[in-house]
Amino acid sequence: MPTLLSVEAVSKSFPGVRALEDVSFTVEAGTVHAVMGENGAGKSTLMLCIAGVQRPDPGGRLMFEGQPLDLHSTRDANRHGIAIVFQELNLAPNLSIAENIVLGQEPRAGRVFVDRAAMRGQARTVLRRLGIDLDPDTRLGSLTIAQQQLVEICKSLVHRPRLLILDEPTSSLSEAETLVLFRVIADLRREGVTMLYISHRMREVFALCDAVTVLRDGRHVRTTPLAGTDQDEIVRLMVGRDLASVQRVPPGAEERPVVLSVRGLTRAPQYRDISFELRRGEIVGLAGLVGAGRSEMALGVFGAPPPDAGEVWLHGARIAVDRPLTAMRHGIGLVPEDRKGQGLVLMHGVGTNLSLAALRRLSKAGMIDFAAERGVVDKYVRRLRVKTPGRDQVIGLLSGGNQQKVVLAKWLATNPTVLIIDEPTRGVDVGAKAEIYALMRELAAEGLAILVISSDLPEVLTISDRVLVMREGRMMGELSHAEATEERIMALAALEHAA
Q: In this structure, is residue 319 part of a structural domain?
């Protein structure tokens, strides 16, 4: 097959960070080409260079269809037939679905006014292509994260790209939505569209892709056909070592004291009559399809917003759940699903973000104890192996996985007794994922009660002592460690007769 894209000695530096160094490889036309590596390996930075968001450093170059590619913006890339679906949502929540899909490319009536009928028509066409039943006039901010991810994909298809970059496109999608995306990828491939596919999910890569390029620490390690390799070899190339497999660990036999008790929690229509318990030193998984109300219920326990009815008991005493500050004062922490929108202040430094929730503990007489703050920041940067040149590094310049580690560290710095973690490894590579699992087990061994919400069933099974399952805003059942399987979880999550 002819070469569509050539990456030739591409490097990219930011203040204090060498994100890419002398990366070279080629992508054949009409193929799905995976790009893999640990968080911080340079994958997203390289994709931003190809998509016109960032300019490579002088010395290297990009070639597209045999011609030098000199891009100054994403609009410039779109004109060349290159589009990108960002890992982090790049949408306007106060605009409609249709306005987001055609943003910057609005059809005009008489070259002056936006042709809103044509805009809705374009939006309906791409929504229908992905099998999405949504009104184009719906405000984007009212959608779930998964639905917003699908709108991001629709936005890229408006440009009819010859090269489509998909950066962790399934990280927020349910199994059903993922299958829809796979069908779209197959259709695009038959139409001759070439795709660069970034994912940490090995099964997806081997199911969809023809070849893989592995990056490590900003350098090219190897490009190879997937038919000639296996998952273990790719992991070794990514991390530079053999990675021990993560095994399910049975819970301890001792009866542990109840730390958190949720009774009849309700905020209609998101969730109704939710009751469960968390015990000291255990990890409880909360599973369910996207839209089941898991994240909304977790936010309710945290008081963001508070539930309409029900009770939350901590250490045997009923507590108010009127606002997040109250929950924090009682020792409850929440790592949100949307780290970019709810977990971080992207233009501030790593240290500022990490210490933000613990400032009350790090202050004396209303003044921040900066020495104590630096100590806490350095402690958790080391413990979670956050890749950053320093505590003042702007967090928006870190990889998604390292941002996730900082959000987790932010709540650990508050010394919580209960920690709710929503999608703990979304967009996180295999090496960092194993580190996060080990950290959660270590925290549980120290007595922390952890509730983990995850759409990844192997993840739920790997880390959980017990599994709770929600469907359509209700708690459908509980499975012990011995009872929990993917089939039994899905039966509770999806089948009416399992209620």
A: yes
